[in-house]
Write a structure and sequence with these properties.
The chain is of the alpha+beta class. The chain is built from 10 helices and 4 strands.
């Protein structure tokens, strides 16, 4: 029986040793579909998911992940990739979707909200994301900082800022995936430690792609969870204002 959200969150642990028992590829794919429903900045969905089932590539991933147990024992892997370089295509996809949803209206009949949505992808997203060797981003950053003296304004416009935005969205998607796996009784381990350049070469990723995380998948062995869960006391991290 599928777990509730709270049960799945409680069940999820970073598992380092998996059973030598295959897991259904289609179940992992279903969980990746759930990952794509995660919240994402501006709905740009600047992510891709590489579902690794090929034994040869899995072996290569073990070396790229420094031989850690989670990679060594993984039955499958999912690599979460950010694609900030695809912002134009993703913005256009949103724009096409909006225009299709407004197709029963003439442009002059669009209401304020509809016009704002179209302008968001036609004007605001290009203003924020367009850059030339990082230089334009710094010019926009300084300009927005100045404007910000007088009124609230979006400030994350440098190349480095937008990389962070893309990785935050990808992290939300990764958590969706892992909780979905936990809900149906499968286990995962997100691995920060990897040679991202080697991972990119194994997956033949383009230059603009970045590795967000590698997630090992399988069914936990009893020894696969290394110890009891530790969390900082809730009172130390919870601030009611």
């Amino acid at each position: 029986m599928e777990k509730t959200v709270s049960q799945a969150i409680a069940y999820r642990r970073s598992v380092r040793v998996f059973k030598e028992e295959p897991i259904p590829t289609e179940k992992v794919e279903e969980c990746i579909r759930n990952a794509t429903l995660a919240a994402t900045s501006s709905n740009l969905q600047l992510w891709e998911f590489y579902h690794i089932t090929d034994k040869t590539i899995l072996e290569g991933m073990v070396a790229a992940c420094f031989g850690q147990n989670a990679a060594k024992y993984a039955q499958q892997m999912v690599v979460v990739v950010t694609r900030k370089d695809l912002w134009r295509q993703r913005a256009q996809a949103n724009l096409s979707f909006l225009k299709e949803s407004f197709k029963n209206k003439a442009p002059q009949d669009y209401d304020k909200r509809e016009k704002m949505a179209l302008n968001y992808y036609q004007k605001l997203i290009p203003t924020v994301y367009f850059d030339v060797l990082g230089v334009l981003g710094w010019i926009k950053y300084l300009f927005f900082q100045f404007v910000g003296i007088f009124r609230p304004i979006y400030r994350q416009v440098r190349h480095s800022d937008l990389r962070v935005v893309a990785h935050k969205s990808a992290g939300l998607a990764a958590q969706n995936f892992m909780i979905s796996m936990a809900a149906i009784g499968y286990d995962t381990c997100p691995m920060e430690g990897s040679d991202t350049l080697r991972v990119k070469k194994l997956l033949t990723l383009p230059r603009g792609a970045e590795i967000n995380m590698v997630i090992a998948c399988g069914i936990r062995e009893e020894k696969g969870v290394y110890g009891p869960r530790f969390r900082i006391p809730f009172e130390a991290v919870y601030h009611k204002v």
